[in-house]
Design brief:
Elements lengths: L2 H5 L5 H15 L8 H15 L4 H8 L8 H8 L10 H19 L3 E7 L5 H13 L7 E8 L2 H9 L1 E3 L8 H7 E4 L8 E4 L1 H4 L2 E5 L12 E6 L8 H14 E9 L13 E3 L4 E4 L1
Parallel strand pairs: 1-2, 1-7, 2-6, 7-8
Antiparallel strand pairs: 3-5, 4-5, 8-10, 9-10
């Protein structure tokens, strides 16, 4: 089968529905009909890799027992892994105030637990680590854990590496860049950039995690960042997620959502509204 034939394959309505249904079951991702062109564009390379002639064959494959291993690749292709350092900076201002308040307890033997749910390529958890170290340079020596998770294993691997091309470094001040990163020279054909120092990388534990499935965490968190994730979920899926978030948040904890995300009727799920897109347990 020629690459030209594969590249020209179009997404028929039955295949769109099969892909959309699987994406919803596996990850809660809601795909409207208007996303058909986007899905077609993003999945064509999977057809090429698998040597499949069209989307009907692809759907038959992902619905077969042998096609189970393709599901993570499908979800990865359909999710948007876009992030920035210190995105929505007011959240990091709030985090800084929380850290300043907790420092005496931390230095007396207390602990701080933070979860970056939907961490994408790692810019969010690194921004969290830099914020903490900016307020307390000894933070990496205290009882601190930052858990960073994402459904996409490929971006988790990227985040673990902690190497960012110049184009992804916007938002990091010159002072923080000098303090927390080293210049990284790429091999032939690659992009030069910056590598996060072990001081901040060592503060973060990265793991793949599907928010719709079982969570292995048993202890509660002081802070949960779940930003620009639930925007892809329908209301029913969101309503199943909020009680689980509430259960994992300490009574004086903070939940951050993305700028276009809201908890409808937060009191129903045990939350009260704080600063913009910031929720605290009742």
């Amino acid at each position: 089968m020629s690459a030209t034939r594969l590249a020209s394959s179009t997404l028929d309505s039955d295949s769109f529905r099969a892909i959309a249904d699987l994406a919803y079951r596996e990850s809660g991702l809601t795909l409207a009909d208007k996303k058909a062109t986007m899905i077609q564009s993003r999945l064509r390379h999977r057809l090429r890799i698998l040597g499949l002639p069209d989307f009907a064959a692809y759907c038959a494959y992902i619905q077969s027992e042998n096609g189970q291993e393709e599901h993570p690749h499908l979800i990865s292709a359909l999710t948007t892994n876009v992030s920035h350092f210190f995105r929505e900076s007011h959240h990091f201002d709030t985090l800084g105030k929380l850290v300043a308040k907790r420092l005496p307890d931390l230095r007396a033997g207390g602990c701080l637990r933070i979860w970056s749910a939907g961490c994408s390529n790692g810019q969010e958890p690194l921004s969290i680590a830099m914020t903490l170290l900016d307020h307390a340079p000894d933070m990496h020596k205290l009882d601190l854990r930052i858990l960073a998770t994402d459904i996409d294993a490929s971006v988790i691997n990227f985040a673990r590496e902690g190497v960012y091309p110049d184009r992804l470094m916007s938002g990091v001040s010159d002072e923080m860049r000098a303090r927390f990163f080293t210049r990284h020279t790429a091999s032939a054909g690659g992009e030069s950039g910056y590598a996060a120092k072990s001081e901040i990388k060592g503060m973060i534990r990265y793991n793949p995690l599907n928010l719709l499935k079982e969570w292995p965490m048993r202890s509660q968190f002081d802070v949960i960042f779940c930003r620009n994730v639930v925007i892809y979920f329908d209301v029913e899926t969101q309503c199943r997620l909020w009680p689980r978030m509430h259960q994992l948040l300490r009574p004086d904890g903070v939940l951050f959502l993305g700028h276009s995300e809201r908890i409808a009727q937060p009191e129903k799920f045990g939350f009260r509204v704080g600063e913009p897109t910031t929720y605290r347990p009742l």
